[in-house]
UniProtKB/TrEMBL annotation, chains A, B:
Domain Aldehyde dehydrogenase: 4-273
Swiss-Prot/TrEMBL catalytic activity: L-glutamate 5-semialdehyde + phosphate + NADP(+) = L-glutamyl 5-phosphate + NADPH + H(+)
Protein name: glutamate-5-semialdehyde dehydrogenase
InterPro entries: Ald_DH/histidinol_DH (IPR016161), Ald_DH_C (IPR016163), Ald_DH_N (IPR016162), Aldehyde_DH_dom (IPR015590), Glu-5-SA_DH (IPR012134), GPR_dom (IPR000965)
EC number: 1.2.1.41
Pathway: Amino-acid biosynthesis; L-proline biosynthesis; L-glutamate 5-semialdehyde from L-glutamate: step 2/2
Gene Ontology biological process: L-proline biosynthetic process
Transmembrane region(s): none
Main EC class the enzyme belongs to: oxidoreductase
Name of one Pfam family that matches: Aldedh
GO molecular function: glutamate-5-semialdehyde dehydrogenase activity; NADP binding
Keyword list, A-Z: Amino-acid biosynthesis, NADP, Oxidoreductase, Proline biosynthesis
Length: 407, 407
């Protein structure tokens, strides 16, 4: 068995063995991990210093950007404390498991429940920031999924020690220490992508090319988190102040974020009025390209990445047509595209922003990491068989019942 | 442009152009299709006779099974009428689109809605029965997706005429005639699997090898509908009558169905009691293999296909552990695995039974063909920008609001 296969098999076994572990035990495991991280803070930050030193050499040689180096630093500002606080926050979120979304009585004494449950084994691949290991581990544990994590190679020393602390925390809990594992090489990722008997979902967070490369090399479902190409459309009824505020914020609040705006579409009637003011406001901040188009919806559907698009308008009809007609994960009215974010949406946490159209779309919270199963219970004295139904036999009732699990 | 690419592009355009078409217009389109099918009944059944003739030659030569031939026949019993009734039934189902599943006020005058919407362009590949073209076309139209359909080559003459009638029906409606297209060759399927810029979801309904072959050859998400390996576990507290009824029904009600049972697991304490009676009842019907196992949950998780598994037990604790511990789309108590079915579950229709773990699991109704988008509306006099929030600025409210769309 290859080492990748051993990882994958251990993850699947850890997942299956933890089906009966309660929500309370999961929350306790998260607090154990937080404590283990805090106990090992000195060693982890020392390893992080080593990663930073190696990265500085790469920066000096022009092989790495200064901004990537900055993202590696785990000791910057309140980063360490907010990483630990994030673990506590996830522990305190409502349990996403065991939620009944469909409940019907199919027959007297035959009850059907659709119940949320974990997906299985996640393979999560991300770049740069080492604290993502801790974030994703917390999300996986809370949502009942086991996970194999691969960070950027620049942070290998840090993520190794973070992973050891996570395993130490898990060993104090009801969950197996193999519930969260980390790998360090691309070769291991390649091997894991072939193991669809063990791995249920691949979550790549990074560039379009990373997501596409993974999609090309696995039959495992991929929940891609790639770049956004977002648009703002200034409708003919746009309010001038809203236009300026929304465009400038969408474009300049954090230009390298996936939810910042790339494309501005201006209704031609505004070219000598609103556009001049918006253009001036943008020039004072950054630059924008403006393909004016009377068919804004068609233009956006053809050219956007279906991430987030916004319209500035005072017309209810234009807003309605835009929100329904634009085929994107987020369709906004008089609001900046930068609102597309799990925390801002109120999810309490964020796995990332899915650019896929299956399972979870847009900002992904814990809900995006669960699926459901159907539980069917007969309380009839003879049990239930389909042979009793149909022509000349019983008919299905399909009556609504309380969405309360009997077990 | 290849013919496959022309199909795919036309489907995407048809999808995008129909975003604003109402639920009522979709229902009308379905009734137009039903009428067009009825008007062309004679020609369609004549083509079906040709398919049957060609198939008979294959059967006589030993190259096709008798049962496949039977499934081709569109004029058998009430098949034609129930195909048309199915279209009317789907038209009458509740609209799966526009349903709000999350509604929050992020700030005064900033409302967020998560609204169900179509996935996009579906590529549906299935085998044998020609009426599936009509079923799937109806489901796609109702759920707002455009679709490209590929049936079995044995029914090419029939499906061609069915497709023409569907297009004729669509041309009487608000939907474009290219909303539903059919293709006839494997080469076209291969070409389409490369076109992830146009096609959003592939739904193969057939053998494990069909599903796997498609997963190996596309980066488009695949919602597989493959074979099931289902289990029944007779717990030590199993009631003897329930055991006999559930096992015999699960195994023999329709042995070739994906939800019939392959594996029977018997608690060792029952070997000289319940098992003898169940075994005799099965011998009177069919045969079964019985790997007795004290660790039934582990056994099922390792060997089942995670489709549907049932326990026969009088113990509440055993039922609870089984339902939560078995990692399958259906976990049943004292009920036949044959209940795993969209109609029996009360969905009113069925796309198939998904053996995947992402997006839709188990029997798939219209809900499985939709995803959602987030609509965000600012009613503030100045619009909303994220730059106003954060340290020293505004805080997010995240208050629940009515799940009623403003447009």
């Amino acid at each position: 068995m290859s080492s990748a296969e051993a990882f994958a098999k251990a993850a699947k076994t850890a997942f299956e063995d933890s089906q009966l572990i309660t929500s309370k035990e999961r929350a306790t495991a998260l607090l154990c991990i937080r404590d283990a991280l805090q106990s090992n803070k000195a060693e982890i930050l020392a390893a992080n210093k080593e990663d930073l030193k190696a990265a500085q050499i790469e920066v000096d040689a022009g092989r790495m950007s200064e901004s990537l180096l900055k993202r590696l630093d785990l000791d910057k500002g309140d980063k360490w404390d907010s990483m630990l606080q994030g673990v506590s926050d996830v522990a305190a979120l409502p349990d996403p498991l065991g939620i009944v979304s469909y409940a019907k009585e199919l027959d007297d004494g035959l009850e059907l429940f659709r119940v949320s449950c974990p997906i299985g084994v996640l393979l999560v691949i991300f770049e740069a920031r080492p604290e993502v290991v801790v974030n994703i581990a917390a999300l996986a544990i809370k949502s009942g999924n086991s996970a194999i994590l691969k960070g950027g190679k620049e942070s290998n020393r840090t993520t190794l020690l973070l992973a050891q602390a996570i395993a130490a925390g898990l060993s104090q809990s009801a969950l197996p220490a193999t519930y969260i594992q980390t790998i360090q090489t691309r070769a291991e990722v390649s091997s894991l992508l072939a193991l669809d008997q063990y791995i249920d979902l691949v979550i790549p967070r990074g560039s379009n090319s990373l997501v596409r490369e993974i999609q090309n090399n696995t039959r495992i479902p991929v929940m891609g988190h790639a770049d956004g190409i977002c648009s703002v459309y200034l409708d003919e009824s746009a309010d001038i102040e809203k236009a300026v505020r929304v465009v400038v914020d969408s474009k300049t609040d954090y230009p390298s974020a996936c939810n910042s705006t790339e494309t501005l579409i201006v209704h031609e009637s505004l070219l000598n009025s609103v556009w001049l003011v918006v253009g001036r406001a943008l020039l004072e901040a950054k630059s924008a390209r403006s393909p004016p188009s009377p068919a804004a919806i068609r233009f956006i559907n053809t050219h956007s990445s279906h991430h987030t698009d916004s319209i500035v308008t005072e017309s209810h009809a234009a807003a309605a047509a835009f929100c329904r007609g634009v085929d994107s994960a987020g369709t906004f009215v008089n609001a900046s595209t930068r609102f597309a974010d799990g925390f801002r949406y109120g999810f309490g946490t964020e796995v990332g922003i899915s650019t896929g159209r299956i399972h979870a779309r847009g900002p992904v919270g814990l809900e995006g990491l669960v699926i459901y199963k159907y539980m069917l219970r007969s309380t009839d004295a003879k049990g239930h068989v389909v042979g009793d139904f149909g022509a000349g036999g019983k008919q299905y009732k399909h009556a609504n019942i309380a969405a309360t699990l009997p077990f």
